[in-house]
Amino acid sequence: MKKIIIQEKIKIISNSRVGRNHFRLILCAKRIASLSIPGQFIEVRVAEGYEPLLRRPFSIHHVKGPNIEIFYQAIGRGTEILSRKKAGEFLDVIGPLGKGFSILNTQYSILVAGGMGVAPLVFLAEKLKECKSKNAKCKIVVLLGAKTKNHIFCQKEFKKAGCDVKISTDDGSSGFGGRVTDLLKSVLLNTQYLILNTQIYACGPKPMLKEIGGIVASCGLAAQVSLEEYMACGIGACLGCAAQTKSGYKYVCKDGPVFKAEELT
């Protein structure tokens, strides 16, 4: 089946600050919303002119009816411009793009988010909840990792999706004191995850994802990981988002951003 990608001017419903420099952008994008799956992303032109020239990629954070939601951090010129956009304005958007997560109806699903890696996992949790409604034995566990408690986001959204949420902070200010990968190891000491049907989904910095790959391999589990990469074009044309895998270089925007953990080097 040919993949459908849409480019259109989309109206901003709201663009609200939820942290010091974190924002939630809601867009009325009926056609993109109807085609999106967790793990996919959109490319947004944040200004009408040529400064900045390149689009910015954003994971699809949540879909509700005709609306899509983006959770982003204003850390550069492009996202700073985006943070000033108001309800009623329009943005030129392309999407949905990329290869998303494969939703597996396993007994246990463990979602691991490092920092802004939380962005695509809320949509995933909501889709997994639909599987859970068909199988009461299914359980979704979410591990949220961040530097401090002030950098933990989306707890309410995950809990609303019926997830068991566990937190880790590097400074020990909330939850487990240490890295989220150490929390994952601790959780996996509970042998039910190793014996029963378990799938791990993760998004975060590359070192975190690489470590998760090693953890799941040693446990005999499977994981899907979403790479965080700057993707200028979103369709594999600019060749700027190449990532090395065991089968050669892949383009994160076209071949990913979701890969099987064992594919990564």
Structural topology:
Layout: E1 6-17, E2 22-28, H1 30-35, E3 41-45, E4 56-59, E5 62-64, E6 67-73, H2 77-83, E7 90-97, E8 108-114, H3 121-134, E9 139-146, H4 155-160, E10 164-169, E11 176-177, H5 180-188, H6 192-195, E12 198-204, H7 206-219, E13 222-227, E14 242-245, E15 248-251, H8 252-255, E16 258-260
Parallel strand pairs: 8-9, 8-12, 9-10, 10-11, 12-13
Antiparallel strand pairs: 1-2, 1-7, 2-6, 3-4, 3-7, 5-6, 13-16, 14-15
Describe the structure.
The longest helix has 14 residues, at 121-134. The chain is globular and about 55 Å long. 24% of the residues lie in helices and 35% in strands. The protein is of the alpha/beta class and 265 residues long. A hairpin with a 2-residue loop joins strand 14 (242-245) and strand 15 (248-251). The strands form three sheets. The protein has a seven-stranded antiparallel beta sheet. A seven-stranded mixed beta sheet has the order 11-10-9-8-12-13-16, sandwiched between helices. Strands 14-15 form a two-stranded antiparallel sheet. Keywords: 2Fe-2S, Electron transport, FAD, Flavoprotein, Iron, Iron-sulfur, Metal-binding, Pyrimidine biosynthesis, Transport. Pathway: Pyrimidine metabolism; UMP biosynthesis via de novo pathway; orotate from (S)-dihydroorotate (NAD(+) route): step 1/1. FAD binds at residues 56-59, 78-79. Heterotetramer of 2 PyrK and 2 PyrD type B subunits.
Can you list the strand order of the major beta sheet?
4-3-7-1-2-6-5
Return Rg in Å.
18 Å
Number of helices: 8
Q: Give the DSSP E fraction (strand runs of 2 or more residues).
A: 35-45%
The level of helicity is 10-25%
Would you identify the CATH H-level superfamily of the largest domain?
Nucleotide-binding domain of ferredoxin-NADP reductase (FNR) module
| Low-confidence residue ranges | none
Overall number of domains: 2
CATH third-tier fold name of the largest domain: Rossmann fold
Q: State the major sheet.
A: 7 strands, antiparallel
Structural class: alpha/beta
Number of strands: 16
Domain FAD-binding FR-type: 5-103
Subunit structure: Heterotetramer of 2 PyrK and 2 PyrD type B subunits.
InterPro entries: Cyt_c3_hydrogenase_gsu, Dihydroorotate_DH_ele_sf, Dihydroorotate_DH_Fe-S-bd, Dihydroorotate_DHASE_ETsu, FAD-bd_FR_type, FNR_nucleotide-bd, OxRdtase_FAD/NAD-bd, PyrK_electron_transfer
Organism: Candidatus Ghiorseimicrobium undicola
